[in-house]
Amino acid sequence: MSEQYLGVGYACQFLKKSLRLGDVRLEYLTGGKGPPLLYLHGLAAWNGWDTDHIALGLTNTVYAPILPGWKSGEFPPGVHRVTDYAAILRQLIGALGDSRIDLIGHSVGGWIGAYLASEEPGLVNRLVLVDALGLDVPDAPIARLETLDEEALFRAAFSTSGAMVVAGDFGGVPINLRSGMTFRQLQRGIRSLMALTGGHPTDPELAARLATIAAPTLVVWGEQDGVAPLRHGEIMAQAIPHARLAIIEGAGHIPQKEKGQAFVRLIRNFLLDNREEVAGVRFA
Amino acid sequence: MRIYNLEELTYPGVPMNFGPEVRFTNRFCDPKVAAQTYAEHLEEWALCEELGFDGVFANEHHFTGFNIQPDCNVTAAALIQRTKRIKVGVLGNVLALRHPVAVAEAFASLDCMSNGRFMPGVVRGLPQEYISYNADTFTGRERFEEAYAIIQRCLNEEIFDHDGKHWKLTGVSIWPKPVQKPLGPFWMPAGSMESIRFAARNHIVSCQVFQPTAGFKEVFDAYRQVAREEFGWEAGVEQFAGARFVHLAEDNETAMAEGEKALAYLFRVLGRPIRNPAPVPGHASDHSYDFRRDIEAKVSDDRADTVGPTSDAKAMRATFERMRRHGWCVAGDPDFVAKWLEDDASQAGYGNLIVSFRLGNLSHEQVLRSKRLFAQHVLPRLRTLNQAPEPKPIAHIAPYEVRQAEENRRERLYHDFNYVLSKDAIEVVDEIHQPATRERTVGWLMRVPQRHIDGSPTEIIFPGPCEEHRGCALRLGLAGANGETISPRAKVKLAASDGQREETVFEGDYGAFSRIPDQHAPEAALAAQRRVVAGDGWSIALTVSVPANTPEPDLEAEDSFFEIECFKQVLTVSA
Predict the structure, then answer these.
(1) Superfamily of domain A8-283
(2) For chain A, what is the largest distance between any 2 Cα atoms, rounded to a whole number of angstroms?
(3) Which of A164, A258, A265 lies closest to B296 in CB terms?
(4) Is the pLDDT of residue A171 over 50?
(5) Interface test with A, best of B216, B276, B302, B306 (most A CBs within 10 A)
(6) How many whole angstroms separate alpha carbon A273 and alpha carbon A276?
(7) Where in chain B is the domain with CATH 3.20.20.30?
(8) Complex ipTM, two decimals?
């Protein structure tokens, strides 16, 4: 172990900070050490410093903003569409004093991240898009989330057939996804998404924009994503010039929760330029 | 069935009126209470010999009041002193936190201290242990497997170099060797698929705790299947150990009331003292989580995972009864405990029971009473169950008997040389030229350095034939000034002298050397005929006497060379 190794214990620690950017107050979590990395949350899981944040904190200084208004559904001035968040995040990056960042976006955050990386190709060093929303794919459309009952939403979001995943110590502690925080946040996130998209969470211009992304890109998809089907990931990986598609087996829309260890190894390897294989992940 | 005792050595004095922050630091540790707890545990363990147990285990955890033994080798050494016949084991050393050579040295020492009664064990360790030791979780498993391989080499090989991903070692040859040949079997908790596969490959005894009977069975069945299908052997009941907390009293009600209180205390101190509750990245794999999940799904009918102090006595009792049913604490009268464990062992299929008495904050007196009841009423009933021979360890790596066992060992050259004398060695001080009428003698004169500047003597040792080998290698090639061949009848002599007397290492015809097509081929070289030790200031002469009218060797020629594989000893005497 090298003397410089900055351990998991350090990366476990984080701060919650807030910034005023014009009329908008932006809260974000930050921790870890290394080059700056912006981690954009998806429909759910916006307020925790979870296993994935800790893993990223081993290689990067992680900034995980909470999209203003996402929790409450009361959006700040200037945010009328999902992609309007890009301007706020651009301001955040400027305020943090960084000129180039690594960027990871999950679900709706992937949509915003792809938009930001295409608007300003010089800003993003490396890009990771995880089960990103936004593409309009007529033969594999995004699930009509607002119409799904609890059972159907659960089946769309998670690959796990039971209501349980396992994580933690002593060989694992069962977690009930259905009654857990993630699932409740998911329901609130869907309401925000519908409010910002008028019930149509797609962006007809996104497909054309992807070709202008300059950053080396890793597109990560849960094989059984029932929210944005794998076909979306395939199209993104083809449209983005320097992209690879990594498929996580046995995961749905939130691979961080269902296959958290494969997820963190995969992204860590990408950020470290490490080519070793990760069990449960295949490259298309 | 074999019956062992393991105690978690739980600190008993953590206050009950604080929140979960009691776990984070050692604020509530009173060293006087810790000392008393150690003293009581050692007495309880020592009693096992008298009560007829097969052995005792010490284990380790770090940064927690749940178990205040951070070094189970220390505890094991104390237990060895307090017992005479029964086995003493560790379950086990956290390999992520120790150097593998130090683990092997400790195991070998403990086996010697106990005269072969030691049971070695290794564990992966918990996330908080990695975090506070700043060990890399992402490489935890591969380091565990490499460390295990190094430990096996230390215990079984005479000397080795290791060029691994995480450790680079040279000339490792530990003292002492263990008494058991090979030392083992090893024990480890193997609950994830990766650990099960590793244990099955290495014939390690698999231990399980904190699972209902059906959970044990799933894990042991997975091991049996992997052993059979992937490694081609049948794992018997002796390969499995079930660990259970028990608490006995004369009647069920007393045992349950005491057990309930103690279990509630246990959950006050069990768990991870890390501020962030998220699963630590890199420590486990999804594969192992999935395996646990499938087990959980099968056994989770009414499983309780936590129990805390509650004012609702009825709810508390209901929780305790669920946990009692699932084996977190088998509390009852002797008949209940015996029956429960009989069912557990026969259904899950284990041949080793590791039983713990000191649950949570049970008192010394309660534990002694419980243990005596167990020994008197339960132990005899369990003995006859799941009987099997002792689990057999395997040593993958050439055991140290390999040299003796090898046929034709006398054909081997001495291989442990650390120095080669040659034309270029610093010891060469001069050439020898003795023209004579009939035969001329030429050669190289060497001198063992005088006492080293720090006062250390130097020796050059030429090992001669013994039962291990036929002596150190001697190689010699000679050519004349114009490439002429040197007569095979030339006499070669290697001798050392202190100025008074001369000791001959080798004497023979040059033909014996020149007849060997390649003197560097394995075991092809000639060898020293006699062991000679050349001390400080001795001279060493390698001479060749050629018959009259035959070409004389040119010592400077490219093709004139010699190599003597010897042992050069510098005894450094320094503070």
Answers:
(1) Alpha/Beta hydrolase fold, catalytic domain (3.40.50.1820)
(2) 54
(3) A164
(4) yes
(5) B276
(6) 9
(7) 2-383
(8) 0.81
